[in-house]
Design a protein that fits this description.
The protein is an all-alpha fold and 194 residues long. It is 63% helix and 2% strand. It contains seven helices and two strands; from the N terminus they run αββαααααα. A two-stranded antiparallel sheet has the order 1-2. Helix 1 crosses helix 2, helix 2 runs parallel beside helix 4 and helix 6 crosses helix 7. The longest helix has 43 residues.
């Protein structure tokens, strides 16, 4: 029988991972309280809560590391849900800084081939928070994150290019629609004036 040494892993995350193995359920309920997420209780009660988004990312990585791929979607869902839930709170202005803080761990602890958390981060940065003043009035924090992580820089570049292409395509469709609408209007005008 092969033995797995879990001494280097966070005990709370191991407990959640083991609980998931037995129940196939994973409650990563999170609530932002200042800089921390949720309540941490290292007692034996079953209501242990994740302490931060870093814990969710680490749990995602544990699922991959120990061959529990069904754990990853749970962690990914809760990571995304936590960010999305923040949009409706007074703390929404913290989202860019939170996302920027997650970049190093997401890009170093998840496999290169796994795009789930990476794509979510990039999408959120581009479509919702890229120009936010929370990331620095001149985007300095975002630029630093891009300098520090070549893959993130590449992903952001590709994402920004795709966004610009989509904008141009939308403009083309708008112009075609306006032209078609004008043609219909002219045809209606001609038929009513006869």
């Amino acid at each position: 029988m092969k033995r797995v040494n879990l001494c280097d892993e966070d005990p709370l995350l191991v407990k959640i991972m083991l609980e998931f193995l037995y129940t196939q359920r994973c409650d990563l309920s999170t609530t932002f309280l200042g800089d921390e997420v949720g309540d941490y209780d290292d007692g034996d009660d079953k209501d242990c809560k994740i302490r931060s988004l870093d814990d969710i990312i680490a749990l995602y990585a544990l699922g991959d590391k120990y061959g529990i791929p069904s754990l990853c979607p749970h962690a990914s869902h809760d990571f995304q849900k936590t960010i999305c839930d923040l949009r409706d709170t007074p703390q929404r202005q913290l989202i860019p800084d939170i996302l920027l803080g997650c970049i190093p761990q997401v890009y170093t602890s998840t496999p290169d081939s796994d795009r789930t958390l990476k794509d979510f981060l990039v999408k959120e940065m581009i479509h919702g928070h890229c120009s936010s003043s929370s990331a620095g009035p001149d985007g300095k924090a975002l630029l630093e994150a891009m300098e520090d992580n070549a893959q993130f820089r590449k992903d952001m570049t590709v994402g920004l290019l795709e966004k610009e292409k989509a904008k141009e395509k939308a403009k083309e469709h708008d112009a075609e629609f306006e032209k078609a609408l004008a043609s219909v209007g002219e045809a209606m005008w001609d038929s009513s004036s006869m």
